[in-house]
Amino acid sequence: MLSRQPKLVGLPADVLLMILALCGVEDVLRVEMTCKVLRDVAATRYLWLAHLRSLPNECAPNFPPHVSIVSLDFIGLKSLVVRAVRGSRNWNSPSPKATREIKVIVNDPVRKPARVVKKASLVPGGDYLLVEWTTRPYVLDGYLQLLEVSNGEKIWLYPNPDSYSDSTSRKLWAYGVDRIADNVLRVATAETNWKIYSELSVFFFFFSFISQIALHRHLRFFRMAIKVFEIDLCERRSKTIYDHQLGNGYLMEPYHLYLQGDHIVLVGYAKALYFLNWKSSCFAELTSVSFAPLAMSTVSHFQHRRMLP
Q1: Which residues contact 302 (CB under 8 A, 6 or more apart)?
Q2: Would you give the distance in Å from CA 214 to the centre of its chain?
């Protein structure tokens, strides 16, 4: 008498979940189309949360930081994982294909003097575009403009031309964006006075190389303004929620600014990192930092300061 062969669908549900969690995402999609039992097992939040956590770095999903994973059901988790895996495979293929094309028409917000687009980047979520305008390439004297991707509508412009007539008097070093809700964005900027910077640059240009080093040291004593703006995407309104000038002794040449929650990270040209909690006005500085390709390898000096009110 032949013994009955065990069937996959006859296994306990928790065992099936463990098996599917070890399979690839495409394999799970094929398995769930075979029968109702396996489809029901695959329609569990635990399974897709396990696949989300096991994704490699190159398959990191496009997940807005303000959305909590706890709020997603299995449909949302499944969609997030599948799009991340297929998008990574398409991007790394020999001939990547565009899955969607959207044209956004951007116009110079202030036509005098004429400006060009220096940088355009999607904000978290992909439905808004932040454009940086400048009078000349590699000159940081322009405007930041926020546009809606779907219709090109202008949401926000900084600085406001009606209240700020001469944008060339400021030097916008860096900026960052954080999305704290579906309809709320925050933009942080780091800027100094461009005219003062230019005059000192011309003055020290006629001196020796040693004097140029002195110029760099002198620039450390400029006051840099850190501003945080909160933008209501529904009401099309914005307000300044933080505006503070850093005191003397801080490096004035950040080329990257990262904003997340209450924290701002500034990356300086002279191997320095600056950490700022803009709500509590706590400021920390890491200087003489040596950067490895993937990680910070050496920190030789650390200072912690609290900014004056």
Answers
A1: 284, 285, 286
A2: 34
Burial class (CB in 10 A: 0-12, 13-18, 19+), 230: middle
Q: How many CB atoms lie within 10 A of CB 100?
A: 5
Which H helix or E strand runs over 90?
helix 74-91
Q: What tens digit of pLDDT does each residue of 76-133 get?
A: 899 989 989 998 888 888 888 887 788 888 887 776 666 788 888 888 878 899 998 8
Contact 131, 117 (CB under 8 A): yes
CA distances from 75 to 26, 43, 78, 80 (A): 16, 8, 5, 9
Tell me: the pLDDT tens digits for 132-169?
Answer: 888 765 555 678 999 999 888 889 998 876 665 554 45
**Cβ partners under 8 Å of residue 98, min gap 6:** none
Cα gap 174→169, rounded to integer Å: 16
Tokens of 222: 């400029």
Cα atoms found within 13 Å of the Cα of residue 63, Cβ hemisphere only: 20
Q: Tokens 């709320």 sit at which residue? A: 184
d(CA 272, CA 266): 8
Decide if pLDDT at 188 tops 60: yes
Find residue 242's DSSP bridge partners: 228
Radius of gyration of the chain (CA): 26
How many Cβ atoms are within 10 Å of 289's Cβ, its own excluded? 17
Peptide bond into 159 cis (omega under 30): yes
Closest Cα partner for 120 from 136, 104, 102, 101?
A: 104
Tell me the longest C-alpha to C-alpha distance in the chain.
101
Cα separations in angstroms, 186 against 39, 66, 138, 236, 282: 42, 11, 25, 13, 19
pTM: predicted TM-score of the whole model, two decimal places: 0.69
